[in-house]
């Protein structure tokens, strides 16, 4: 059984496009587009390259073992999803990463761990901001103890005293 390196390069922050292909993209040629030399997402050591060099059809990928790319979903003319997977046998594959092509621009899809991590970080940031603001209103004096000092209370107090002076 071949070993699988599940630590795929994290390319979430980049995108790739070849504008010459964009008007002619379709499900029949999207894998050829994805396999362009300048695409940083494409692994040149994959089985797709072997099939291409030997001029075989993509059906031969099912009989090979190793990394391969497949067209997972197509919503013409704008969206295509490519999956990179490790084939263990004709019936067993391990998904490694997904890529989506929107209007010809290729992006790596984030994995579930990245999405959850980002959401947790956003939530923690919001809670930390609320805590920092609440702490800015907290006051302490040894003889009085703790109390809350809100800026709008001070403004209301000044407004009330100025109204009393007028009357």
From TrEMBL:
<keyword id="KW-0010">Activator</keyword>
<protein>
    <recommendedName>
        <fullName>Mediator of RNA polymerase II transcription subunit 6</fullName>
    </recommendedName>
</protein>
<dbReference type="GO" id="GO:0003712">
    <property type="term" value="F:transcription coregulator activity"/>
</dbReference>
<keyword id="KW-0805">Transcription regulation</keyword>
<dbReference type="GO" id="GO:0006357">
    <property type="term" value="P:regulation of transcription by RNA polymerase II"/>
</dbReference>
<dbReference type="GO" id="GO:0016592">
    <property type="term" value="C:mediator complex"/>
</dbReference>
<keyword id="KW-0539">Nucleus</keyword>
<comment type="function">
    <text>Component of the Mediator complex, a coactivator involved in the regulated transcription of nearly all RNA polymerase II-dependent genes. Mediator functions as a bridge to convey information from gene-specific regulatory proteins to the basal RNA polymerase II transcription machinery. Mediator is recruited to promoters by direct interactions with regulatory proteins and serves as a scaffold for the assembly of a functional preinitiation complex with RNA polymerase II and the general transcription factors.</text>
</comment>
<dbReference type="InterPro" id="IPR038566">
    <property type="entry name" value="Mediator_Med6_sf"/>
</dbReference>
<keyword id="KW-0804">Transcription</keyword>
<comment type="subunit">
    <text>Component of the Mediator complex.</text>
</comment>
<dbReference type="InterPro" id="IPR007018">
    <property type="entry name" value="Mediator_Med6"/>
</dbReference>
<comment type="similarity">
    <text>Belongs to the Mediator complex subunit 6 family.</text>
</comment>
<dbReference type="GO" id="GO:0005654">
    <property type="term" value="C:nucleoplasm"/>
</dbReference>
<dbReference type="Pfam" id="PF04934">
    <property type="entry name" value="Med6"/>
</dbReference>
